[in-house]
Structure formats: C-alpha cells, structure tokens
Amino acid sequence: MLSKPEAPLSAVSEAFSTSRDGAATGLMLAELDALGRTGKPLLWVQDTRAAQEAGVPCIRGLAALNMPLLRVAARNAAEALWAMEEGLECTSLSAVVGEVWGSPKALDFTATKRLSLRARRSGVPLWLLRPDAQPDLSVAPKRWRVASAPSAGNVLDPRAPGKARWTAELFRARGAKPGTWVASHDRAAHRLDLVAPVRHGTVGEGASPPNRRTPYAVGGGRAGA
Fold it and tell me: Phi, psi at residue 176, to the nearest 5°?
C-alpha cells in the first residue's frame, strides 16, 4: 500500500526543479486547486531571475482557481523574502507563492524558519518554488523534487498530447511517508492525483503481478479508479 502526503496543506512546502518547463509550478497550482477555493487573493512573489527565466504568472490561466492574483516583482532574493514574510502576516490571503531562482545566500535555514513561523502563526500557507536550486537545510515540512513526465494519452487524437503529468518525489514529509509518484491534475474534480509509477514485474512462471497504479487524491475529492 502506498502512502500519500497528508491532506492539509503544510505551513511551508518547497518544490525543487531543474527545468524551465514549469513542472513545479504545475504541481503547486494543482494542490492549491485541490485543497480549497477560498476566493481570497493569492500573493505571488518573484525575484528578477525567476521572472526572466520562467516568465510571469498568466492571469487568464489562474482564473479557474477563483483566487485573484497579486504579484510582487522583487529585485533580488532578499527583497522577495521580505515580501513573502509581510504577505504571510495577512490573513486575507489564501496563500503565498514565493519563486526564487537558484540558491542565494539570503535563502538559508534561518530564512525558512522565519517564513515557517509566520505561516503557522497566521494560518496562511506558503509554497516556495526553487528552480535550479540545491535542497539545502530547511524547516519546510514538505519538500518535493518535480520534473515533467510524458503526458497522458489523448482520447481524441493519439498523436496529440493529453493531460499534463509530472514526476513528483516527496523526499521529506513531516507526518507522512516519502515517496515518488506520477502526478496529474483533474481540473473538473479539482483534484491532484498521485499515481504509483509503473515498475517492471518479475519474469517467469509464478511471477508476481506488476505493481498496480493506484491514484490518490489530495484534498476533499476522492481518487479515481
């Protein structure tokens, strides 16, 4: 039996990615959609390098979340951290997203502890996106490594891409068992599905059947079959 991350959104979640394809951003948005549509604004903080390399959030694409977007363009990591801390003091926000490129000195263990304390005090969750960064010391209860995976099949055209999927490794999870899944977002059900990756079965007579792909849902929705 697979274990899954705890349903409640952690005070601080970190997502590491080595690509510029938005894999970590996709996973973050899917979890926010699955865990509640509060109607409160979403504060998105980016440092200059993150905006240059990954682009700015698309307001039209975020409309389905029912969270008005407030974006802060910070010049560097230190200013981005300050904006995140200030945002986490505001209980009128649904969540704070902080996007910091690489591993700047300002984003150290002490900085993550300050962010965590403010998030726990206010109840406003923080997603810290870390493109092109090394997973140094952090107090974040949930830490992910995310990469793009081949898309699902397209039922209308087998030559066309289907639903986006990501390889999501939860390498640190306080209160849950770490693991690796193929993640996808069910937009209609507002659900994040975590499915066991396909593994090779044993070859030969009497071999055990290959591992079944069992989806899990994060949030209020139920997992699909």
Answer: -150, 160
Sign of CA dihedral 5, 34, 168, 129: negative
Query: Cα–Cα distance between 31 and 223 in angstroms, integer?
Result: 14
Residue 64 DSSP code: G
Query: Bridge-partner residues for 42, per DSSP?
Result: 69, 95
Pairing of strands 12-17, 126-131: parallel
Q: Which residues pair with 13 in a beta bridge?
A: 127, 142
| Structure-block tokens of residue 170 | 């939860």
* Chain mean position to CA 98: 11
Cβ 131 vs Cβ 53: under 8 Å: yes
- Say if residues 43 and 87 touch (Cβ distance below 8 Å): yes
Q: For tokens 């949030």, what's the residue? A: 219
Whether the predicted model's global pTM rises above the 0.85 cut: no
pLDDT tens for each residue of 105-129 = 999 999 999 999 999 999 999 999 9
